[in-house]
Amino acid sequence: MIELQHDEEFAVLTIRRPSALNALSFELIGQIGQCIGQAGRSSARALIITGEGAKSFCAGADIKELQNRSLAAQREGAELGQAVFALLDRLPIPSIALVNGFAFGGGCELALACTLRLALPNAKFGLPEVKLGLIPGYGGTQRLPRLVGVGRALEMVMTGRTVGAEEALSMGLVNRIVQTPALDAAKAYAREFSGHGLRALQFAREAVQRSVDLPLSEGLRMEADLSTLAYRTRDAEEGMQAFVDKRKPDFKDE
């Protein structure tokens, strides 16, 4: 099952299927989509995604579900995973993958879809689909090179090898390695930005994420547009006035 809880100012989505290393069935993927929507409609300042237990964040797709399916069903499965994980791009709050243990296949792709990634020292990342005669289908071939570069992404996808936490940090796959208690560490990390106005955070995320798809000249125009929109928010007025007054701003997400 997928559980969504509110912990202080955060929404916490937990994959609870430890008996199968938190592997994703199509039903669970649908539940993840529902929970992402609920988190976006809540008062949470960030969404933290993790897996139950110390052994696995998410070991990927449920292989038994992938067998003996029609071509149309195979396509629909890939599109479902892509569509659900893409919801994180449109989520009005930032998302953080808190990776505890295995993040393989679809689990790695779920982490890649989050805004930011934290890893415990035992975290292991991989896209091993090639070992089954397959390739990633939930966005891994597209998001991984945007994070780590084409060469490193090709190596991971073509060899299917596992990357540990330290290597993942060095190659830019994760933002930080954190210690236990992991959820406390994730909340502390989220508080480094969750106090800022959500409008500014949304504009910042959009500007950076869209930059990889645009030539520099077009990206600069897009940045100017979003920067101008940011100036028109009440939070910008409050932030600048607070700076002049030498006080902490009181953002209202407006």
TrEMBL record:
Protein name (record): Enoyl-CoA hydratase-related protein
GO molecular function, one term: hydro-lyase activity
Family the UniProt entry places it in: Belongs to the enoyl-CoA hydratase/isomerase family.
Keyword Lyase assigned: yes
Pfam families: ECH_1 (PF00378)
Keyword Cytoplasm applies: no
InterPro entries membership: ClpP/crotonase-like_dom_sf, Enoyl-CoA_hydra/iso, Enoyl-CoA_hydra_C
Alphabetical list of PANTHER family matching this protein: ENOYL-COA HYDRATASE, MITOCHONDRIAL, ENOYL-COA HYDRATASE-RELATED
Ranges in coiled-coil conformation: none
Domain of life per record: Bacteria
Keywords noted in UniProt: Lyase, Plasmid
Single GO biological process annotation from the record: fatty acid beta-oxidation
